[in-house]
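User: Working on a comparison across species. This one is Ska2 N-terminal domain-containing protein from Urocitellus parryii. Can you predict its structure so I can line it up against the others?
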Amino acid sequence: MEAEVDNFGFQKADSDLDYIQYRLEYEIKTNHPDSADLELSPLAEEEKTVTVQLKSHITDS
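Assistant: Here's the predicted structure for Ska2 N-terminal domain-containing protein from Urocitellus parryii:
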C-alpha cells in the first residue's frame, strides 16, 4: 500500500511539472510573441541521467 501511495505521489508530481512547463511556454508565447526564436535548452547529461533514474524508480515501485 505504501509503495502505491509513493508511486501516486511521483506520478502527480510529474504531471504537475508537465502542466507548469506547458503553462510557462504558453505564457511566454502569448505575452512575448516577438521571442518566437526562444527555445528551451536541451537537458544536460546529468539531468538526463537523473530523469532516467527517477522514471526507473517510479516503475520499480
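For your comparison, note: DSSP finds two helices and no strands in the chain.

User: Helpful, thanks.
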